[in-house]
């Protein structure tokens, strides 16, 4: 007999048939004649009720069926007379796969704090909350691949180990096979990197964009979706040292096309979640964030407001609002500014464009005004910036001049510059932090709670 | 007017309409009245022919249209009178986006060796071969996600940075933010890792499996698909220092289920390639591997032969074949043995099971015979082992005993062992090297040619 997952059993119309169900015991309750086991197999937030007539089973088996135990139940799927579930399983036999001693197993019935669960991150996927979060994480990852595949984008793997720190997007982790206790040294006493694995110092990438541009300028439209690393010593609910990033890059896309793609992309993902993760979202809404579904619908059904950074600054200045940080022209916007524009002024997501060049990266296309670049940031309620992107500078001369102006190492970027030397094309792209997206879609407040094994300063467990 | 990609134009039935087409010049030929430009935008291996009546265009524009230049053409899509293409574009106007000086641009018309292209890996996606390989790479990645999503598996991100080297699958890269020239030291002169970013020595993962098992024992069925690292100093056509791996892990799957999944998975991927990448496969077949499509069909249409390692050894011993390496019971099979079984003896893919425990990893389920484990390797024509997996040892006592026997560090594995302490379940999984798969599907011979930016000893360019 084929084992069905619980998500399939619950949605199945077939009752009064024999079934096998396997999973972990969430709870066991009952009276002296009958026990009710809530059994969960991770396929959905709901558990299925297993009804056990105690007279048919020995005491030792029943004793071992405690929260966390893994069991197999053979029985009959029937309509449930009780409330809260459509079907239940009347057990005819039970096999214990693995016990969970109530004296030691940490995940007992009572609710646990997110802090406590973070300490046992290796077990927390067994809870309803993390089951829901990780299923939503999967659904969003799949939706990302599907969105791009359906639109003729090619998945592109930028390298993780890199010898250059060109974007300057953040502090980097060094990758080495040298013996740190006793590294080889050159005659002048410095580390002899010619003896390191790659023959030179290497780091973990902070962004796959520059290599992604090579992809766009050959395959047309590409996207990366891979791990990215930042070695900043930031202990905040919004930073991870290892996170996943999505970076589409498109030849022949100008800034307007880029904005349209970003808006379509975010709405697609949110629509996908609402359609495919309804039970998990409702659970997250009930347990963690009452306004979650409302907020998702809000973004889905409103056009994003597009405006210039300069106009945004003017709105902030005449708002009469007292902000913690300054908001003069030339300042990078803080979360408080972004949220004011989105949540209070426009009451919809905002795409801010044409930022001062001083606060944006060297590769962004320079506007004719000489002081702004064709950058775009997509600002969302609750979390502020969710996407950052730009049209890229396609002009070899302008790009070189900007690199010199910033005292960057032009020689390290030779391969990047070559793309503008030969067959350069207008092109654009943006970056979306996967876990930032998940904060928005799950309603969780701490980024460590939307990835299975968070890496942060002093934390690399499991 | 909407710009269509060339793949869409070529398949379009709409002729005699105005179109805009953007791409890179592959070749330009013609006579003194008319020029024929082969324009490619990376969306497919075919180029579209642009017909230019020279009288309508100035000499300077035409001079700039050289191999590698990027242009925009506005014109009329018409049925082509010539052979080899269904439609062509009659140019009414041409804009030059980016030139490519024939004196410097490395990718001229003539064929280039794969070695030469490896040196300019940042440009090689602009060639027909690497365009085809990278589009197939995308298709396979998408098919992997679709296969698992359709079957109720959740995408699971095992961490990249890890503090443990438990599997012992290979040499590791160290990850650090310490200043190697002047690292902090403890009183006894050793490196003071408490001052490193994570407070202890950390490495790049060699496998996401152990963490993946945590996922299976909570969400039921998961799969990883992410980068993996090995610091072995291997300069072979089959090894990369950074590669991508797919590792599904399933609760309630025994070895038989695992074999079935692996066979279904590989056939699905190959079938997907044959259905969705036909032009690219035909190109690879023509240029690089005449038997490619035949070999893919062969695997698709043959049941995989399943047999015990012990039987396999017997077949090898009575084969009368002189092998370079020994094939006594207890030896790990070499590529020559695997290929003999697949290509000569059974003439079909082979799944070999129940290997001697000494040559397999500690976490594999021990058979009752005391000397074999429930391992499985899937062996393919041309490349040998493509998948390695096993049912996992679910018994806490047996797992601990094996770890002790092997003198492994039990304390570092506490979190892994805990999964067998609480709610243990029968479970299985396997690993597929993504680039190994791509060698098979593209027909390429060197693994450095199926990833955009190969990392190997002494090589971390771009």
Automatic annotation (TrEMBL), chains A, B:
One annotated GO biological process: asparaginyl-tRNA aminoacylation
Location in or out of the cell: Cytoplasm
Domain Aminoacyl-transfer RNA synthetases class-II family profile positions: 134-452
Pfam family, one: tRNA_anti-codon
Highest taxon listed in the record's lineage: Bacteria
EC numbers, comma separated: 6.1.1.22
Predominant place of localization: cytoplasm
Keywords of this entry: Aminoacyl-tRNA synthetase, ATP-binding, Cytoplasm, Ligase, Nucleotide-binding, Protein biosynthesis
GO cellular component entries: cytoplasm
InterPro entries referenced in this protein's UniProt entry, alphabetically: Aa-tRNA-synt_II, aa-tRNA-synth_II, aa-tRNA-synth_II/BPL/LPL, Asn-tRNA-ligase, Asp/Asn-tRNA-synth_IIb, NA-bd_OB-fold, NA-bd_OB_tRNA
Reaction(s) the record says it catalyses: tRNA(Asn) + L-asparagine + ATP = L-asparaginyl-tRNA(Asn) + AMP + diphosphate + H(+)
Record's keyword annotation contains Protein biosynthesis: yes
An example molecular function term from Gene Ontology annotations: asparagine-tRNA ligase activity
Subunit-structure text: Homodimer.
Family: Belongs to the class-II aminoacyl-tRNA synthetase family.
Name under which the protein is recorded: Asparagine--tRNA ligase
Chain's gene name: asnS
């Amino acid at each position: 007999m084929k084992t069905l997952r619980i998500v399939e059993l619950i949605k199945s119309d077939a009752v009064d048939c024999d079934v096998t169900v396997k999973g972990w015991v969430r709870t066991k309750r009952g009276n002296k004649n009958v026990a009710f086991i809530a059994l969960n197999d991770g396929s959905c937030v709901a558990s299925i009720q297993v009804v056990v007539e105690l007279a048919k089973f020995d005491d030792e088996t029943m004793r071992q069926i405690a929260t966390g135990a893994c069991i197999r139940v053979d029985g009959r799927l029937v309509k449930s007379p009780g409330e809260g579930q459509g079907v239940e399983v009347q057990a005819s036999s039970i096999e214990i796969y693995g016990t969970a001693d109530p004296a030691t197993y940490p995940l007992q019935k009572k609710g646990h704090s997110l802090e406590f669960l973070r300490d046992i991150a290796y077990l927390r996927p067994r809870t309803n909350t993390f089951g829901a979060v990780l299923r939503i994480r999967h659904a969003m990852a799949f939706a990302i691949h599907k969105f791009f595949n359906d639109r003729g984008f090619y998945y592109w793997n930028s390298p993780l180990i890199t010898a250059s720190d060109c974007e300057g997007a953040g502090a980097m982790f060094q990758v080495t096979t040298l013996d740190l206790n006793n590294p080889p040294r050159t005659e002048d006493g410095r580390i002899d990197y010619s003896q390191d694995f790659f023959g030179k110092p290497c780091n973990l990438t902070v962004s796959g964009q520059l290599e992604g541009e090579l992809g766009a300028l050959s395959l047309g439209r590409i996207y990366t979706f891979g791990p990215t690393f930042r070695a900043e010593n930031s202990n905040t609910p919004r930073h991870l040292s290892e996170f996943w990033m999505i970076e589409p890059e498109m030849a022949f896309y100008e800034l307007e096309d880029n904005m349209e793609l970003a808006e379509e992309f975010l709405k697609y993902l949110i629509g996908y979640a609402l359609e495919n993760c309804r039970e998990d979202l409702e659970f997250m809404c009930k347990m963690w964030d009452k306004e979650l579904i409302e907020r998702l619908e809000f973004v889905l059904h409103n056009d994003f407001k597009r405006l210039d950074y300069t106009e945004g600054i003017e709105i902030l200045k005449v708002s009469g609002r007292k902000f913690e940080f300054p908001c003069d022209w030339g300042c990078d916007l803080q979360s408080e500014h972004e949220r004011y524009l989105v949540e209070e002024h426009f009451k919809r997501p905002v795409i801010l464009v044409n930022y001062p060049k001083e606060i944006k990266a060297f590769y962004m296309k320079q506007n004719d005004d000489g002081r702004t670049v064709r950058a775009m940031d997509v600002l969302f309620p609750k979390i502020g910036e969710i996407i950052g992107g730009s049209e890229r500078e396609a002009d070899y001369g302008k790009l070189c001049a900007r690199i010199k102006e910033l005292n960057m190492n032009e020689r390290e970027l030779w391969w990047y510059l070559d793309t503008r030397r030969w067959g350069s094309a207008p092109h654009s792209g943006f970056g979306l932090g996967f876990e930032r997206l998940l904060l928005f879609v799950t309603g969780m407040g701490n980024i460590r709670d939307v990835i299975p094994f968070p890496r942060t300063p002093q934390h690399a467990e499991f």
